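Entry 12.
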Amino acid sequence: MKVGVQFAAMLCLVLSSCQPHPAAPQPSIEFTKIPPAAQGGKEKLHTIAGRVVGARPGQHIVIYARSGAWWVQPWGDRPLVAIRPDSTWSSETHLGYEYAALLADPGYRPPPTMDVLPARGGSVVLVKVAKGVGSTVLAPTKPLRFGGYDWRVRTIASDRGGTSNLYDPDNAWTDSNGALHLRIAKKANQWSCAEMVLDRSLGYGTYLLVVRDVSHLEPAAVLSMTTFDEWAGEQYYREMDVEISRWGDPASKHNAQYVIEPYYHPGNVFPFSAPSGTLTHSMRWESGHVTFKTSRGPSTTPGTPAIAEHEFDSGVPSPGQERVHLFSYQVASNKSPLHGTNEVVIEKFEYLP
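Predicted 3D structure (tokens):
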């Protein structure tokens, strides 16, 4: 009888050990406070908060705000947000159109900026995205008419060029002849730059820019005509560029380049040397390819001899919500930091379907 009882007890133990164990609960993230939907910039900080269920010891939250790219919050040197004993978390953040909270394992090093959020996997345990609250608020801009088009002149700071630059609307204006002036100048002991954005998308076609002599530009100064779609990170923002700069290196043998993003892909940058004098830069954008050309003088006549010409036929974006941006800004440079005011004059912008 005793043996039978022992056998029954052992059988019960074996059978119970074969039963499936309840699965560990999947982690989840909830937002309890979401900032407004607004164009980002360094000027304003808001609080974002939430709670996480199922986090393991050592894990933390990483916040990103999207304004163009996704930017880690609140600063690149302080990207990790602690999860409190009661499972809540909170952080300051700059504004954006959307906000993302990542649950990450110990050792995860968040990149300062991303075109597209990471997928779940590896050190990234979970990604939760929320739209900003309310109607989207754009930063104020100054209207400017140039080349027969309406433009918006930037008024808030930007990290373009690898350093924080102010953007002053007084650095962009047209003269009595209709030419556009873009300037980099000192303001309150900091360099202020110029950026203006076309008020609509033009899509496929030819874009022409006639620029007066820029041989006086310092190595750290940049002039750029760029297409950019801040809603298309998965297509590298549909960015294509004509850029005039030595990128802070006075010894560089090239002072200009044509680019399609991502610039780090082989073949996506075509550098060349732009001579002194007035130059016409053109970009002919068609389905599957884009052709850049630079020629002497204010000429838009077909067949004008080219100083530089290059066609990209791989990775060329299709039209979306891109706008033309005209920039004059400075890059961070230890070799040759900016010393004085840099000004460029653009005689003409033209679009041909």
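Annotation: The longest strand covers residues 342-352. The helical segments are 2-18.
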